[in-house]
Write a structure and sequence with these properties.
Among the domains are: 119 residues, no CATH class; 99 residues, Ribosomal Protein S5, domain 2. The radius of gyration is 47 Å and the shape is elongated. Helix content is 44%, strand content 10%. By secondary structure, the protein is of the alpha+beta class. Helix 6 runs antiparallel to helix 7 and helix 11 packs parallel to helix 12. The longest helix has 23 residues. The strands form 2 sheets. The chain has a 5-stranded mixed beta sheet. A two-stranded antiparallel ribbon has the order 1-2. Keywords: Ribonucleoprotein, Ribosomal protein. One of its GO terms (cellular component) is mitochondrial small ribosomal subunit. InterPro entries: Ribosomal_Su5_D2-typ_SF (IPR020568), Ribosomal_uS9 (IPR000754), Ribsml_uS5_D2-typ_fold_subgr (IPR014721). This is Ribosomal protein S5 domain 2-like protein.
Length: 376
Amino acid sequence: MATIGLRAFEMFASRLSCRPPRIHAFTLRSLTTGTTATPPPLNSRFVPPASLETMDEVELEGDQVDFDVSSRPHRPRPENRRPVPPSPAFYTARSLYYDTLVQLQAALSLSRRALRVQHLLPLPPFALRALPPAQPAWANKAEMSLILQAPLTARMYKRVVTLLKELEQCERIARIADSTELEDAITDITKGFESKKGIQARDTRIRAREAKEKGPLDKYGRSYTVGRRKTSTARVWMIEVQKPKDDASVPAANTKSILSSSSATTPPPPTSTVLINSVPISDYFPLPADREHVVRPLKLAGLLGAFNIFALVRGGGTSGQSGAIALAVAKGCVAHVPEVEPILKKAKLLRRDPRMVERKKTGLAKARKRYTWVKR
């Protein structure tokens, strides 16, 4: 038992010898002078280290105590500190690009919020389709890279253009709703991403559309339209048939004969001329189906015999040429009488027939016809 206790004490003493002794200043003072040290007064004010940077003197109960500035740990003053980067994307390779994305997203969210306040979002599908068409004039990828001062990949360029398109849609909604302030604010943001060539092309399209809306007729009252079907192209001029003028005075000798005739009560049906490549329609199209195809828009609109038609058609066969002329005639009817547009549009006469001749396949006689199978 004594041996075990002695060994344990030796191990405990060795552990104590490894630790440095903790001796306080007041303990040393008391040992040298034989008196006990008094602790610091409790009413002394504590000064945090951070406040010492701007203090040269600290007043403690009326006594002036000077601190040595050179003995303090070195901390840079505010004027000597490193400048803060202007944006969080400063350390990226394309700081201006990412800052622009953040600004566009913020502008888009604010625009949508303003439209929701005015009860303009969300719009039903039919209202979105009724919006005026977009007129994009965005800069291409090379020009956008110069604007953002960094080379852009296709994915980066698409991301920027997508945000710009959404902002442009908000601008169109604000324009229709007469929200001038919101429209001007969005325009100021998006106009910096447009190119000069795109703006010129957009202005040209707008002028052409305005000229078309003002009046598609020339000074002689003629309309010029173009139609296509398969490989055929037709150019058609249409002019209104001149109605015969009614004579105010009728000779007395002919009054009895006019009143007796039955034709005097009903006017003669209007007659018009349809020339195709300077040939009458009955001679150019021997098949009745082709002739009916040409005059079908006039019959549906109730304008049969109201216009003289002159057409120039090139390419394709009789079926393609009659379809091309019919499309051009339907467009001409709308140019002269805009009220018939819903009728012709419902009959699908104002759009081009997209069907084309199917190509021949290798190993087949025609597009789908196969050769006769022979066993031997």
